[in-house]
Amino acid sequence: MINYGMNVIISEFSKLNIKQSHIEGGSIESGYPACSIKNSSVTVSSSSIIQEITSSESHAWAVQAQEGSNLSFSDSSVSAINIYDSKLFMNSVEIVYYLGIHESSLVRFQHIVDLQGKCSELLDLYIGGNSALIADELKLNRIIDPNVRVIQDSHLYIKQLSYDQGKVDDLNFEVDETSYFNLLAENQGLTEDKQVPQNQKEVERNPQASMEKLKNLVGLTKVKEEIKKMIRMVEFNKHRIAKGLKPQNVVLHSVFMGNPGTGKTTLARILGEVLFDYGIFKGDELKFIEVKEADLISGYVGQTAIQTQNILDQAKGGILFIDEAYTLNKKDASVNHGQEAINTILTFMEDNRDDTMIIFAGYTKEMEQFLKTNPGLKSRVPNTFLFEDYTADEIVSMGEKQLKANDYLLEDCDYYKRNVSRVYNASLDRSNGRWIRNFNEKLYKALADRCYKNEQFEDLNTITNQDIDEVLGKHASYEVKTGKDAFDSLNELIGLAKVKQQISDFVHLAELNRRREEENGGEAKFTLHSLFLGNPGTGKTTVARILGEIFYQKGIIAQKKFIEVSRSDLVAGYVGQTSLKTREVLESALGGVLFIDEAYSLANSNDNFGQEAINEILKFMEDHRQDIIIVLAGYTKEMNTFLSTNSGLTSRIPNVFDFEDYSEDEIVEIGRLGLSKQSYTFNESLYGEIIKKAYAGSNDHSNGRWIRNVNERLIKHLSSRVANDPQADINQITDEDILKLLED
Predict the structure, then answer these.
(1) Which of these, 70, 255, 310, 497, has the minimum number of CB atoms within 10 Å of its CB?
(2) Which CATH number does 9-183 carry?
(3) What percent of the chain has pLDDT over 70?
(4) How far is CA 409 from the centre of its chain?
(5) CB of 561 within 8 A of CB of 589?
(6) Same CATH fold, 486-657 and 207-387?
(7) Binning pLDDT at 50, 70 and 90, where does residue 199 land?
(8) For the residues 318-347, what does the mean pLDDT come to?
(9) How many whole angstroms separate alpha carbon 53 and alpha carbon 299?
(10) Residue 92: what are its φ and ψ, rounded to 5°?
(11) Mean pLDDT of all residues in 211-221
(12) Of 524 and 378, which is predicted with more confidence?
């Protein structure tokens, strides 16, 4: 397959198998790689992929993969590869020009991979952006400065390094202070006291420095304290040994649980430095290997144990960080390769309790479930670190540190703090550290745009209030929404004078709190959760919808979303399942309104499932006071009884709206309006008289619901009459039709 000037292969959200093929083409000038791969799984065997590269200015590579792709190459030749946020497995492959590994990518070399380095302007290998390469055997073919660059919290592990033209010592490895390079091989011709290439900086044990790194991390107070306890135990053992006493065994294996962006990976690396500096990990260098499910599991029976054991052996004497560990739980799969990996890990953990640390990391809910389904694992992991979400103040502090580290200044620090706090508190994307990184990156772009538009390049590092406003203006969820004023919709409702005034006061209070938050900084202490009390048919659901629209238009909540549920939508029939089911419903309503009708029914049961749902709702209310409106609705008497037995609800829901019954005149007006909207004509005076008489004599005082049912009966009378008289006006309700209502 040859196609110069364009991509030869484009693979997106696909699976692709390339076998015994020759692929050639692409366009360096136009930025088209020969093979463009996004979010795909691609296997290449006994093939060649060619795209000529002549300089470092090239904007395309023979293979470019991104967005979570998985690549496997064997017995093949490739001109150059660039991967982003992807995984790459290589077995007996030659790379003609260059290999670039970016953005949290992971690469594994099995057997020899030959980097030929045939472009004088390109280095041989680049690893950056929190990426890692584990190589059984790597061959380099020239001396260039550098041959390999490892930066930005990245890792390189090589078992065997070869250079046929000279000594391995002559190769140049550039490794920044945030990254690690470990040459695991023996008998490589290196001098006895030098286990890494010449310019690789040796790691020194400096407990004070690593503890200072830990201290300087923003937030994570509880996690830091747990680490200090671990270190105190280490020091305690040293004192026992000094007195001739037997030391207490310290099991290092741990679980890291928390939401995305809470610093799990960063802290794991620093924890590794701390443990290394305190002498818990032996050897000349700290070993830190980060893997995910795909790195441990093979698609072939029996190979997973071998693949997992290989990684465990590489991590022995250091840290193995298993991210998203819960994905190893493959109980529904026909062949449970995940359990094979877990069993291999369990055996290793038992044999290496005090010299190797295995960290299982992931989101809290998923990790808790993972540990429940693997009791053997839970019993071997005594240390649990819970990573809490960052507060708005901590997010601001992180943002300021990032700006300083990247040589940016703020025109007005207070303005930055106020706005970041406000926007973060209002955001549904609570991705913690990732959120503030993304926000700051938008500021950098806004600064660059302003400089170019104004053609002013003297000050390239001061972020102004104008830049902040520009970024905030691009967040639709913080702008006031346009369209029909929802307050008009509220005022158009018949009756409900008391509720309308309560809603108006509630909205004005929320607006005041938001303004105080913006102008004074920090988080305003108010909640949007509400109680709607009243008899059936008094408009509770309708008003809740309108309330959500009002807050959406005012920019107080982020989405125009209304979800209505009852007990059956929240409660499951099995122990432990209700909280999961309720949590899913709550999370689906984030940013909008969750209307729980007949909420008192959660307590009207002989089982505990309803209380389980209530407990989940209470916690969610506390955690999300301003980014969701949870409305508990029901009949006044039943709701008051329900609240009296659940004091936690009363304290969390200060906003109470009393929906009074409609008067007879209001019932008539609702009925008239309903018929008029359907374009019916009728004797309004007679209609009002009959409706009042019928309502007074009815035992069913379900308000708006009652009059809707009456109108439906009235239209049935009309339809029966018209069926017998084809000449009759189908839009005219006669007095006879109305009078029949008294006969029903």
Answers:
(1) 497
(2) 2.160.20
(3) 90
(4) 29
(5) yes
(6) yes
(7) very low
(8) 83
(9) 35
(10) 55, 70
(11) 91
(12) 378
Please choose, from the candidates 246, 268, 391, the residue with its C-alpha nearest in 3D space to the C-alpha of residue 318.
268
The CA-CA-CA angle for residues 61, 62, 64, to 5°, reads 65
Residues 6+ apart with CB under 8 A from 310: none
* Cβ atoms within 10 Å, residue 298: 16
Dist CA 426 CA 275 (whole Å): 39
Tokens of 269: 């690396």
How confident is the model over 28-56, as a mean pLDDT? 87
Looking at this protein, which amino acid is placed at residue 165?
Answer: Q
pLDDT at 190 over 50: no
Both tokens of residue 582?
Answer: 């309720």
Band of residue 192 on the pLDDT scale cut at 50, 70, 90 = very low
Name the CATH architecture for the domain at 664-742: Orthogonal Bundle (1.10)
The answer to whether 337 and 331 have CB atoms below 8 angstroms apart is no
- Pair 629, 504: CB distance under 8 Å: no
Supply the mean pLDDT for the chain: 85
- The total number of residues shown for the chain amounts to 744
The C-alpha atoms of residue 730 and residue 80 are separated, in whole angstroms, by: 76
Residue 633 · residue 598 · CB < 8 Å: yes
**DSSP letters spanning 214-263:** HHHSSS-HHHHHHHHHHHHHHHHHHHHHHTTPPPPP----EEEEE-TTSS
| pLDDT (0 to 100) of residue 56 | 61
Q: What is the DSSP letter of 284?
A: S
Map out the domains of the chain as residue ranges. 9-183, 207-387, 392-478, 486-657, 664-742
Which runs of consecutive H residues, i.e. helices, occur in 539-697? 540-553, 567-570, 577-588, 609-623, 636-644, 647-652, 664-677, 684-696
- Taking the C-alpha atoms of residue 415 and residue 471, their distance in angstroms, rounded to an integer, is 13
Second CATH level (architecture) for the domain 392-478: Orthogonal Bundle (1.10)
Q: Is the pLDDT of residue 159 over 80?
A: yes
Contacting residues for 546 by C-beta, under 8 A, at least 6 apart? 486, 489, 490, 493, 503
Report residue 198's pLDDT band, with 50, 70 and 90 as the boundaries.
very low
Give dist(CA 175, CA 89) in Å, integer: 23
Least confident of 61-75, 290-304, 507-521, 654-668: 507-521
pLDDT at 191: 32
133-170: b (≥16 Cβ within 10 Å) or e: bbbbbbbbbeebebbbbbbebbbbbbbbbbbeeeebee
The answer to whether 394 and 421 have CB atoms below 8 angstroms apart is no
Fold (CATH) for 207-387? Rossmann fold (3.40.50)
Tokens 């503030």 sit on residue: 436
- Of 719, 663, 717, 718, the C-alpha closest to 691 is 663
Closest CA to 591 of 699, 477, 670: 477
pLDDT score of 483 more than 60: no
- Does the domain at residues 486-657 carry the CATH identifier 3.40.50.300? yes
> Once rounded to an integer, what is the mean pLDDT over residues 367-396?
88
In this structure, are residues 267 and 288 in contact, taking their beta carbons and an 8 Å threshold?
no
pLDDT given for residue 188 in this prediction: 44
Range picked from 190-199, 553-562, 576-585, 683-692 for highest mean pLDDT: 683-692
Amino acid in the structure at residue 148: V
